[in-house]
Amino acid sequence: MAVDRKPVFHDLPAAPVAQKKPVSDTRHGLTRSDDYAWMRAENWQAMFKDPTLLDPELRRHLEAENAYMDAAMADTKALQKTLFAEMKGRIKEDDSSVPMKDGPFAYGTSFVTGGEQPRYFRIPHDADPKDEASRRLLLDGDKEAEGKDYFRLAGLDHSTDHSHGIWGYDDKGSEYFTLRIRDLSTGEDLADVIENTGGGGVWAPDGKSFFYTLQDENHRPSKVFHHIVGEPQSADRLVFEETDPGFFMGVGGSLLDDFIYIDIHDHETSEYRLLSTKDLMAEPMLVAEREEGIEYSMTEGGDVFYILTNDGEAKDFKIMEAPVNAPGKDNWKEVVAHEPGRLILSHMAYARHLIWLERRDGLPRIVIRDRRSGEEHSIAFAEEAYSLGLQGAAEYETDVIRFSYSSMTTPSQLYDYDMTTRERTLLKTQEVPSGHNPDDYVTRRVMAPSHDGELVPVSLLYRKDTPLDGSAPCLLYGYGAYGISIPASFSTTNLSLADRGFVYAIAHVRGGKDKGFSWYEDGKMEKKENTFKDFIAAADHLVEQKFTSYANIIAEGGSAGGMLMGAIANMAPEKFAGIIAAVPFVDVLNTMLDDTLPLTPPEWPEWGNPLESEEEYGWIAAYSPYDNVGEKPYPPILAISGLTDPRVTYWEPTKWVAKLRETAPDAGPYLLKTNMAAGHGGKSGRFQRLEEVAFEYAFAIKVAGKM
């Protein structure tokens, strides 16, 4: 099929040609040959910890791809600088959070002008948050990051007695975090060094020990350890080990410091074990044994636990309660009933109130119940599309919680809310130093009919003066996996596209929970192709309604959303002017067949297990982007990866680009950018990240012919 696209890439050098080293694989009587399987480094576990161990042949190939990408994007250098300056100009450089009160102090974060990393500070409980003289600097992220190509902080968790803090960092991008312990009175770190952790710890109430998860050699958090301050890591006590590689594990603590939570889960099943802080050496107590498809999470409410669960066919979840001393499932009693179409997302409990965040008709709201009277009221807003964030409080004995609100046109607003008087106190409005007038923009939500009659919500942002006659370029973003809903929130970066006449659109496709839990179920396993068809339907609807045209749509998605990009490229390449696939999960079948990779066993409930099931093998093989590349009119494609990414390994987009270039050489071009010193999230500094967004948007603007 002939596709009318603007010729925007000129005088390109010869693209890198990857060597073909066929490897055959036979499963369920079916044999496939993979010419680029060699790109999966056999020493990937060691390389994630030390990137210098990368095979020289692979390094040369990735560097050649980066050079080709640089040549293709050379004419956008000035545009990238302009975009970066715009985006940076919308950020208050010396910004500071509103400190959260916890006992004798309030804790917050701040940035300095020019700084990439956050600083952690505290002030006395009753001090004026704006009085910088009262602040005590606890951790300077910029100082800790000095001399490192990559640096990501995992936060600072203070002990109950406020004397010490656990902080963690990853300096490879591989998400193996090192933990240190800081004396908060002196600012000095103790000698303790805990390696290869999941990135945080939970203090015991006495502040003399804490609990953390250890990542195993396959990058899975499979063990919980108890560390006593001052002892070597080798002396740490194993508290619990999860032997099923299909489950993730995390450790947390209750607001009242009465319990340590061990949370074991995959994408559809969960199990909790509790450790009373009154007996740290005890065996963790099982709450409710895991049952396939049954999820639950817990929060403490004094003499009861509140349990959010889908048990008993409560697809959109309900809230139960059980006595603290007998939290087993036999003692669960319903306190918030299941309502089909009202999805309860999370819950919190305080001395006098139970609160939860729910989603109805695709929009969030906060509901508050008085625990004494049972009276309920809610917090909601009137815009067509908006985002709510529930921060809650750090103290149990409180009537005041904190939440945030924004929309695609309205900068984030932070509120304290008195649950008894129902008064809102605006604490902070996100500043846009270069200026922002919400009245210059429009945010809308339209509904796109999909192939089976389902209506797909699409959130839109554009300037009021944007012509809606089909001539506007459009960046259409999608994700659609794990039940994650993409919020219609304020973004300072998206304004750079809107100001250039773009319609910025988010397709809330199946695979997320935007329209309830069934919206998620209808976009996973054997129904995964609904995700892809929904996205194409969103593109069709935007064209039909003259928001844009097929020659002007640039599609974008990352990680599992990158899989979406690979699938729609195979299914409807003629409907997109360009595609941006960030850390794209495109080699789905091979990855789900490789049970040594970090996320493979835990992800079988999301995609299927092709090792055990011929039927599930068939589902994945039918859409796996890498396996379905054909001789088609693909648009220009930009793939972005991170060398030390443990979630979507660098070889997935590398193999995909090589196969695209071999199979459809007259289409494209296909560009691969590999961050040689970063992982899944790209570079970690706040301005470094803006440089990456500016690069992606420069590609979109170039492909749209708007340079």
From TrEMBL:
Residues 17-429 form the Peptidase S9A N-terminal domain. It holds the Pfam family Peptidase_S9_N. GO terms for molecular function: serine-type endopeptidase activity. Keywords: Hydrolase, Protease, Serine protease. PANTHER family: PROLYL ENDOPEPTIDASE-LIKE, PROTEASE FAMILY S9A OLIGOPEPTIDASE. This is Peptidase S9. Residues 489-705 form the Peptidase S9 prolyl oligopeptidase catalytic domain. It comes from the Bacteria. The keyword Transmembrane does not apply. Belongs to the peptidase S9A family. GO terms for biological process: proteolysis.
